[in-house]
Amino acid sequence: MLKNIYEIISGQTNGMCIELVLIVICWLMMVLAVLIDLWAGVSRAKKCGEKLKSNKFRRTVNKISEYWSVMLFGLFIDVFLFAIIPYYVPLGSFIFSIACCGIEAKSVIENLRRKNSAAAEVPSAVLQILKHIDNPEKLSQYIEILNKINKKHEDNE
Known about the structure:
Blueprint: H1 3-9, H2 14-47, H3 54-84, H4 91-114, H5 122-131, H6 136-156
Helix pairs in contact: 2-3, 2-4, 3-4
């Protein structure tokens, strides 16, 4: 039951190192998602002719610190599970970072819609592709339709 603790005491830290690397990757992905959202917001503001305001940039820093406090709960879950279950996957950090990235992805898509970007349709296109993934014929037809839509969008610019 406490296999990981016994391994650490005996000097075998491979499992702990793997888990720490995965946790750091999760946290970095969360920060990267917030920075991508900032980039999308700045891009939208420039395209729509809005002024860039410093409070929006401060909000990004606040958002990262708020997400970090949430991610700490994921870390607590990871530490708890690491102590009682012999596994090397930080489920808490994975789940919380996926949630944070999902929130940021939604914000990026909203910014793209406000900017009238064709990229805002990517999530619905992905869902359509996934619906037809088991039928190669329909999938190829759908990809052709997407290519035509993309071509029309490029011609309008």
